[in-house]
Amino acid sequence: MPQSTTHEKPKPTTKNGAVELLRILAITCILFHHYQQLSGVYFPGGINFYNGRFPFQYLVELFFLLSGFLAHRYERQIRDGLSFGTYLKGRIARLFPGMIAADLFCYAFMAFYFRQYGSYWMDIPINKWRLLITLLGMGAGWFTPATQINSPTWYISVLFLCLLLLYLLTRLAQKTGKDTGIFCAGMILLGVAGWEFVLRAGPECSTIPFWNIYSARGYYAFFMGVLLAKLKERGIPVSVQIVWLAAGCGTLLWYLLAPGLLLSRINVVLALVIYPPFLLLLVSDRALGASGTWKGIVRLGKLSYSVYLWHVPFFLAAFTILLQKGIYVDLKKPVWMLCYAILSWGVGCAAFYLLEMPLRKICAAVGKVSKKDN
Questions:
Q1: Tens digit of pLDDT for each residue in 7-26?
Q2: Is residue 274 part of a domain?
Q3: Domain count of the chain?
Q4: At 54, is the pLDDT very low, low, confident or very high (cuts 50, 70, 90)?
Q5: DSSP 272
Protein backbone atom coordinates (compact mmCIF):
# COMPACT_ATOMS: atom_id res chain seq x y z
CA MET A 1 0.00 0.00 0.00
CA PRO A 2 1.35 3.47 -0.82
CA GLN A 3 2.61 5.48 2.13
CA SER A 4 -0.11 7.59 3.70
CA THR A 5 0.70 11.21 4.36
CA THR A 6 -1.52 11.39 7.44
CA HIS A 7 -1.64 7.91 8.93
CA GLU A 8 0.89 5.33 10.00
CA LYS A 9 0.31 1.86 8.60
CA PRO A 10 -0.41 -0.89 11.10
CA LYS A 11 2.27 -3.45 11.72
CA PRO A 12 1.83 -6.89 10.17
CA THR A 13 -0.19 -9.31 12.29
CA THR A 14 1.89 -11.83 14.22
CA LYS A 15 0.95 -15.41 13.42
CA ASN A 16 -0.65 -17.39 16.23
CA GLY A 17 0.71 -20.93 16.48
CA ALA A 18 -2.48 -22.33 17.98
CA VAL A 19 -4.63 -20.85 15.21
CA GLU A 20 -2.24 -22.18 12.57
CA LEU A 21 -2.40 -25.63 14.17
CA LEU A 22 -6.20 -25.44 14.02
CA ARG A 23 -5.98 -24.50 10.34
CA ILE A 24 -3.64 -27.44 9.63
CA LEU A 25 -5.93 -29.93 11.38
CA ALA A 26 -9.00 -28.54 9.61
CA ILE A 27 -7.34 -28.76 6.18
CA THR A 28 -6.25 -32.33 6.88
CA CYS A 29 -9.81 -33.28 7.85
CA ILE A 30 -11.01 -31.73 4.58
CA LEU A 31 -8.49 -33.92 2.73
CA PHE A 32 -9.91 -37.02 4.42
CA HIS A 33 -13.45 -35.80 3.69
CA HIS A 34 -12.82 -35.35 -0.04
CA TYR A 35 -10.89 -38.62 -0.25
CA GLN A 36 -13.95 -40.51 0.97
CA GLN A 37 -16.31 -38.41 -1.13
CA LEU A 38 -14.35 -38.83 -4.39
CA SER A 39 -13.50 -42.50 -3.87
CA GLY A 40 -16.87 -43.52 -2.45
CA VAL A 41 -15.14 -45.23 0.48
CA TYR A 42 -16.91 -45.78 3.79
CA PHE A 43 -15.31 -47.29 6.89
CA PRO A 44 -17.92 -49.33 8.83
CA GLY A 45 -17.37 -48.94 12.54
CA GLY A 46 -14.60 -46.39 12.02
CA ILE A 47 -14.30 -42.61 11.78
CA ASN A 48 -15.86 -41.36 8.57
CA PHE A 49 -15.07 -37.87 7.33
CA TYR A 50 -17.81 -38.09 4.69
CA ASN A 51 -21.33 -39.04 5.76
CA GLY A 52 -20.07 -39.55 9.28
CA ARG A 53 -21.38 -38.36 12.62
CA PHE A 54 -19.65 -34.97 12.47
CA PRO A 55 -20.26 -32.85 9.32
CA PHE A 56 -16.64 -32.25 8.30
CA GLN A 57 -17.77 -30.48 5.12
CA TYR A 58 -18.75 -27.54 7.32
CA LEU A 59 -15.19 -26.97 8.38
CA VAL A 60 -15.31 -24.54 5.45
CA GLU A 61 -17.41 -22.34 7.76
CA LEU A 62 -14.40 -22.29 10.08
CA PHE A 63 -12.22 -21.11 7.19
CA PHE A 64 -14.68 -18.30 6.46
CA LEU A 65 -14.77 -17.37 10.15
CA LEU A 66 -10.97 -17.24 10.34
CA SER A 67 -10.77 -15.23 7.11
CA GLY A 68 -13.30 -12.70 8.40
CA PHE A 69 -11.54 -12.45 11.74
CA LEU A 70 -8.22 -11.70 10.04
CA ALA A 71 -9.80 -9.39 7.43
CA HIS A 72 -10.94 -7.05 10.20
CA ARG A 73 -7.48 -5.46 10.10
CA TYR A 74 -8.30 -4.01 6.67
CA GLU A 75 -11.14 -1.96 8.14
CA ARG A 76 -8.81 0.63 9.67
CA GLN A 77 -6.79 0.85 6.45
CA ILE A 78 -9.97 1.40 4.43
CA ARG A 79 -11.14 4.13 6.80
CA ASP A 80 -7.68 5.72 6.55
CA GLY A 81 -8.07 6.10 2.80
CA LEU A 82 -6.99 2.80 1.24
CA SER A 83 -8.24 3.01 -2.35
CA PHE A 84 -10.45 0.31 -3.82
CA GLY A 85 -7.91 -0.33 -6.59
CA THR A 86 -5.06 -0.94 -4.15
CA TYR A 87 -7.27 -3.11 -1.94
CA LEU A 88 -8.47 -5.12 -4.94
CA LYS A 89 -4.94 -5.67 -6.27
CA GLY A 90 -3.82 -6.91 -2.88
CA ARG A 91 -6.63 -9.45 -2.63
CA ILE A 92 -6.11 -10.65 -6.21
CA ALA A 93 -2.36 -11.02 -5.69
CA ARG A 94 -3.03 -13.09 -2.57
CA LEU A 95 -5.84 -15.35 -3.79
CA PHE A 96 -5.63 -15.68 -7.55
CA PRO A 97 -2.14 -16.90 -8.62
CA GLY A 98 -2.38 -20.26 -6.86
CA MET A 99 -6.06 -20.66 -7.71
CA ILE A 100 -5.51 -20.02 -11.43
CA ALA A 101 -2.60 -22.47 -11.60
CA ALA A 102 -4.61 -25.21 -9.84
CA ASP A 103 -7.69 -24.55 -11.99
CA LEU A 104 -5.74 -24.79 -15.26
CA PHE A 105 -4.06 -27.99 -14.11
CA CYS A 106 -7.42 -29.45 -13.10
CA TYR A 107 -9.03 -28.41 -16.40
CA ALA A 108 -6.21 -30.04 -18.41
CA PHE A 109 -6.61 -33.39 -16.65
CA MET A 110 -10.42 -33.24 -16.83
CA ALA A 111 -10.19 -32.62 -20.59
CA PHE A 112 -7.74 -35.52 -20.93
CA TYR A 113 -10.06 -37.77 -18.93
CA PHE A 114 -13.00 -36.82 -21.17
CA ARG A 115 -11.03 -37.55 -24.37
CA GLN A 116 -9.90 -40.92 -23.04
CA TYR A 117 -13.15 -42.21 -21.55
CA GLY A 118 -15.92 -40.16 -23.16
CA SER A 119 -17.44 -39.04 -19.87
CA TYR A 120 -16.91 -36.19 -17.45
CA TRP A 121 -14.90 -36.86 -14.31
CA MET A 122 -17.29 -36.82 -11.33
CA ASP A 123 -19.99 -35.60 -13.79
CA ILE A 124 -18.48 -32.09 -13.80
CA PRO A 125 -18.95 -30.66 -17.32
CA ILE A 126 -16.10 -28.61 -18.74
CA ASN A 127 -16.05 -25.88 -21.38
CA LYS A 128 -14.20 -22.64 -22.02
CA TRP A 129 -16.98 -20.48 -20.53
CA ARG A 130 -16.96 -22.47 -17.32
CA LEU A 131 -13.16 -22.19 -17.18
CA LEU A 132 -13.26 -18.42 -17.75
CA ILE A 133 -15.79 -17.82 -14.96
CA THR A 134 -13.71 -19.99 -12.63
CA LEU A 135 -10.48 -18.14 -13.44
CA LEU A 136 -12.20 -14.81 -12.77
CA GLY A 137 -12.96 -15.99 -9.23
CA MET A 138 -16.71 -16.02 -9.84
CA GLY A 139 -17.31 -19.77 -10.01
CA ALA A 140 -19.82 -19.78 -7.14
CA GLY A 141 -21.94 -17.30 -5.22
CA TRP A 142 -21.90 -14.57 -7.87
CA PHE A 143 -24.09 -14.21 -10.97
CA THR A 144 -24.36 -17.76 -12.24
CA PRO A 145 -25.00 -21.23 -10.82
CA ALA A 146 -21.86 -22.90 -9.46
CA THR A 147 -19.48 -23.40 -12.38
CA GLN A 148 -16.10 -23.95 -10.69
CA ILE A 149 -13.76 -26.44 -12.36
CA ASN A 150 -11.82 -27.29 -9.20
CA SER A 151 -14.72 -27.87 -6.80
CA PRO A 152 -13.09 -26.67 -3.52
CA THR A 153 -12.45 -23.25 -5.08
CA TRP A 154 -16.09 -22.30 -4.52
CA TYR A 155 -14.77 -21.15 -1.14
CA ILE A 156 -12.24 -18.82 -2.83
CA SER A 157 -14.94 -17.39 -5.08
CA VAL A 158 -17.25 -16.58 -2.17
CA LEU A 159 -14.36 -15.34 -0.01
CA PHE A 160 -13.39 -12.90 -2.76
CA LEU A 161 -16.99 -11.67 -2.90
CA CYS A 162 -17.08 -11.21 0.89
CA LEU A 163 -13.80 -9.28 0.87
CA LEU A 164 -15.17 -6.89 -1.75
CA LEU A 165 -18.37 -6.45 0.25
CA LEU A 166 -16.28 -5.72 3.35
CA TYR A 167 -14.66 -2.80 1.56
CA LEU A 168 -17.99 -1.44 0.31
CA LEU A 169 -19.69 -1.83 3.69
CA THR A 170 -16.79 -0.16 5.50
CA ARG A 171 -17.02 2.80 3.13
CA LEU A 172 -20.78 2.91 3.59
CA ALA A 173 -20.40 2.86 7.36
CA GLN A 174 -17.86 5.67 7.13
CA LYS A 175 -20.16 7.83 4.99
CA THR A 176 -23.21 7.26 7.17
CA GLY A 177 -21.33 7.55 10.47
CA LYS A 178 -22.43 4.06 11.49
CA ASP A 179 -20.38 1.27 13.00
CA THR A 180 -19.29 -1.40 10.52
CA GLY A 181 -20.50 -3.99 13.01
CA ILE A 182 -24.11 -3.06 12.24
CA PHE A 183 -23.61 -3.89 8.56
CA CYS A 184 -21.76 -7.09 9.48
CA ALA A 185 -24.74 -8.16 11.61
CA GLY A 186 -26.99 -7.40 8.63
CA MET A 187 -24.87 -9.63 6.37
CA ILE A 188 -25.00 -12.43 8.95
CA LEU A 189 -28.80 -12.21 8.98
CA LEU A 190 -28.84 -12.12 5.18
CA GLY A 191 -26.74 -15.28 5.09
CA VAL A 192 -28.92 -17.11 7.63
CA ALA A 193 -32.04 -16.04 5.71
CA GLY A 194 -30.44 -17.30 2.49
CA TRP A 195 -29.78 -20.71 4.02
CA GLU A 196 -33.35 -20.90 5.34
CA PHE A 197 -34.58 -20.03 1.87
CA VAL A 198 -32.49 -22.88 0.45
CA LEU A 199 -34.02 -25.31 2.95
CA ARG A 200 -37.57 -24.23 2.17
CA ALA A 201 -37.43 -23.49 -1.57
CA GLY A 202 -35.07 -26.25 -2.64
CA PRO A 203 -31.77 -26.42 -4.57
CA GLU A 204 -33.14 -24.43 -7.51
CA CYS A 205 -32.83 -21.22 -5.49
CA SER A 206 -29.06 -21.61 -5.64
CA THR A 207 -29.20 -19.81 -9.00
CA ILE A 208 -30.16 -16.45 -7.45
CA PRO A 209 -27.26 -14.01 -7.96
CA PHE A 210 -25.45 -13.05 -4.74
CA TRP A 211 -28.02 -14.85 -2.57
CA ASN A 212 -27.70 -18.59 -2.95
CA ILE A 213 -26.50 -21.69 -1.16
CA TYR A 214 -22.83 -20.69 -1.60
CA SER A 215 -22.91 -16.97 -0.88
CA ALA A 216 -25.21 -17.53 2.12
CA ARG A 217 -22.58 -19.71 3.79
CA GLY A 218 -19.95 -17.07 3.18
CA TYR A 219 -22.10 -14.20 4.46
CA TYR A 220 -23.01 -15.62 7.86
CA ALA A 221 -19.57 -17.15 8.57
CA PHE A 222 -17.19 -14.51 7.15
CA PHE A 223 -19.00 -11.53 8.63
CA MET A 224 -19.36 -13.37 11.93
CA GLY A 225 -15.57 -13.50 11.90
CA VAL A 226 -15.32 -9.76 11.25
CA LEU A 227 -17.85 -9.03 14.00
CA LEU A 228 -16.03 -11.37 16.39
CA ALA A 229 -12.76 -9.50 15.79
CA LYS A 230 -14.50 -6.19 16.49
CA LEU A 231 -15.97 -7.53 19.72
CA LYS A 232 -12.59 -8.88 20.84
CA GLU A 233 -10.98 -5.53 20.07
CA ARG A 234 -13.47 -3.81 22.35
CA GLY A 235 -13.10 -6.47 25.01
CA ILE A 236 -15.40 -9.39 25.74
CA PRO A 237 -15.86 -10.09 29.47
CA VAL A 238 -14.36 -13.39 30.57
CA SER A 239 -17.72 -14.43 32.03
CA VAL A 240 -19.37 -13.99 28.61
CA GLN A 241 -16.64 -16.03 26.92
CA ILE A 242 -17.05 -18.84 29.48
CA VAL A 243 -20.83 -18.94 28.99
CA TRP A 244 -20.40 -18.87 25.19
CA LEU A 245 -17.83 -21.67 25.33
CA ALA A 246 -20.10 -23.77 27.56
CA ALA A 247 -23.03 -23.15 25.20
CA GLY A 248 -20.88 -24.15 22.23
CA CYS A 249 -19.72 -27.37 23.91
CA GLY A 250 -23.26 -28.20 25.00
CA THR A 251 -24.69 -27.57 21.53
CA LEU A 252 -22.00 -29.71 19.88
CA LEU A 253 -22.66 -32.55 22.34
CA TRP A 254 -26.41 -32.24 21.71
CA TYR A 255 -25.85 -32.53 17.96
CA LEU A 256 -23.53 -35.54 18.25
CA LEU A 257 -25.93 -37.42 20.55
CA ALA A 258 -29.23 -36.41 18.96
CA PRO A 259 -28.90 -34.43 15.69
CA GLY A 260 -32.64 -34.12 15.08
CA LEU A 261 -33.61 -30.43 14.95
CA LEU A 262 -30.05 -29.20 14.32
CA LEU A 263 -29.29 -31.53 11.41
CA SER A 264 -30.23 -29.24 8.50
CA ARG A 265 -28.90 -26.11 10.20
CA ILE A 266 -25.74 -27.39 11.86
CA ASN A 267 -23.59 -25.32 9.50
CA VAL A 268 -25.19 -22.11 10.81
CA VAL A 269 -24.96 -23.31 14.41
CA LEU A 270 -21.28 -24.17 13.97
CA ALA A 271 -20.48 -20.74 12.51
CA LEU A 272 -22.44 -18.68 15.05
CA VAL A 273 -22.44 -20.72 18.26
CA ILE A 274 -19.76 -23.43 18.31
CA TYR A 275 -16.71 -22.16 16.41
CA PRO A 276 -16.53 -18.54 17.71
CA PRO A 277 -15.84 -19.21 21.43
CA PHE A 278 -13.12 -21.73 20.55
CA LEU A 279 -11.54 -19.20 18.20
CA LEU A 280 -11.65 -16.55 20.93
CA LEU A 281 -9.92 -18.97 23.26
CA LEU A 282 -7.14 -19.60 20.73
CA VAL A 283 -6.50 -15.92 19.96
CA SER A 284 -6.52 -14.83 23.58
CA ASP A 285 -3.27 -13.55 25.08
CA ARG A 286 -3.12 -16.67 27.21
CA ALA A 287 -3.60 -19.01 24.24
CA LEU A 288 -1.08 -21.73 23.54
CA GLY A 289 1.14 -20.59 20.70
CA ALA A 290 0.27 -16.91 20.98
CA SER A 291 3.89 -16.12 21.78
CA GLY A 292 4.86 -16.93 18.20
CA THR A 293 7.34 -19.64 19.22
CA TRP A 294 5.78 -22.38 17.07
CA LYS A 295 7.81 -21.57 13.98
CA GLY A 296 7.37 -24.99 12.37
CA ILE A 297 3.60 -24.92 12.83
CA VAL A 298 3.39 -21.37 11.48
CA ARG A 299 5.41 -22.31 8.40
CA LEU A 300 3.21 -25.33 7.77
CA GLY A 301 0.13 -23.17 8.23
CA LYS A 302 1.36 -20.93 5.41
CA LEU A 303 1.10 -23.91 3.07
CA SER A 304 -2.51 -24.75 3.98
CA TYR A 305 -4.02 -22.55 1.27
CA SER A 306 -1.98 -24.28 -1.46
CA VAL A 307 -2.82 -27.70 -0.04
CA TYR A 308 -6.51 -26.78 -0.17
CA LEU A 309 -6.22 -25.62 -3.79
CA TRP A 310 -4.30 -28.65 -5.05
CA HIS A 311 -5.70 -31.65 -3.18
CA VAL A 312 -8.55 -32.35 -5.62
CA PRO A 313 -6.45 -31.77 -8.79
CA PHE A 314 -3.86 -34.11 -7.26
CA PHE A 315 -6.51 -36.80 -6.64
CA LEU A 316 -7.76 -36.39 -10.24
CA ALA A 317 -4.24 -36.63 -11.68
CA ALA A 318 -3.29 -39.65 -9.56
CA PHE A 319 -6.59 -41.41 -10.33
CA THR A 320 -6.22 -40.79 -14.08
CA ILE A 321 -2.57 -41.90 -14.22
CA LEU A 322 -3.25 -45.09 -12.22
CA LEU A 323 -6.23 -45.84 -14.48
CA GLN A 324 -4.11 -45.32 -17.60
CA LYS A 325 -1.35 -47.58 -16.28
CA GLY A 326 -3.81 -50.25 -15.21
CA ILE A 327 -2.61 -50.10 -11.62
CA TYR A 328 -5.20 -51.18 -9.05
CA VAL A 329 -5.18 -49.59 -5.61
CA ASP A 330 -7.58 -50.73 -2.89
CA LEU A 331 -8.85 -47.33 -1.79
CA LYS A 332 -10.92 -48.93 0.98
CA LYS A 333 -7.78 -49.35 3.07
CA PRO A 334 -7.38 -46.42 5.51
CA VAL A 335 -3.63 -46.41 4.86
CA TRP A 336 -4.25 -45.07 1.35
CA MET A 337 -6.30 -42.21 2.75
CA LEU A 338 -3.40 -41.35 5.04
CA CYS A 339 -0.96 -41.59 2.12
CA TYR A 340 -3.19 -39.30 0.07
CA ALA A 341 -3.23 -36.69 2.83
CA ILE A 342 0.56 -36.79 3.26
CA LEU A 343 1.17 -36.58 -0.49
CA SER A 344 -1.36 -33.74 -0.79
CA TRP A 345 0.63 -31.75 1.75
CA GLY A 346 3.75 -32.49 -0.28
CA VAL A 347 2.09 -31.37 -3.51
CA GLY A 348 0.78 -28.24 -1.79
CA CYS A 349 4.27 -27.44 -0.49
CA ALA A 350 5.80 -27.85 -3.95
CA ALA A 351 3.04 -25.76 -5.55
CA PHE A 352 3.49 -23.01 -2.97
CA TYR A 353 7.23 -22.58 -3.55
CA LEU A 354 7.46 -23.45 -7.25
CA LEU A 355 4.25 -21.84 -8.56
CA GLU A 356 2.35 -19.70 -6.10
CA MET A 357 5.22 -17.64 -4.67
CA PRO A 358 6.79 -16.85 -8.09
CA LEU A 359 3.37 -15.93 -9.49
CA ARG A 360 2.66 -13.71 -6.49
CA LYS A 361 5.96 -11.89 -7.05
CA ILE A 362 5.03 -11.32 -10.69
CA CYS A 363 1.62 -9.99 -9.68
CA ALA A 364 3.21 -7.76 -7.06
CA ALA A 365 5.70 -6.41 -9.59
CA VAL A 366 3.05 -5.78 -12.24
CA GLY A 367 0.50 -4.29 -9.84
CA LYS A 368 3.08 -2.74 -7.50
CA VAL A 369 1.46 -4.47 -4.52
CA SER A 370 3.52 -4.40 -1.34
CA LYS A 371 3.74 -7.28 1.14
CA LYS A 372 1.69 -5.29 3.63
CA ASP A 373 -1.13 -4.95 1.12
CA ASN A 374 -0.93 -8.65 0.29
A1: 334 444 456 788 888 999 99
A2: yes
A3: 2
A4: very high
A5: I
